[in-house]
Amino acid sequence: MAVILRSIVFNVAFYLNLLVYFVLALPTFAMSRHGIIGMATSWGRTNLWLLRVICGLKVEVRGRENIPPGAVIVAAKHQSAWETFALLSLFADPAFILKRELLWLPVFGWYARRAEMIPVDRSGQPGVMEALAGRVRGALDAGRQIIIFPEGTRRAAGAPPRYKFGVAQLYRQSGAACLPVALNSGLFWPRRSFLRLPGTVVVEVLPVIPPGFDRAEFYRAMQARIEEATARLVEEGRRELAARGIAPPVADDGDDAD
Question: Sorting pLDDT into bands at 50, 70 and 90, what band is 253?
Answer without folding.
Answer: low
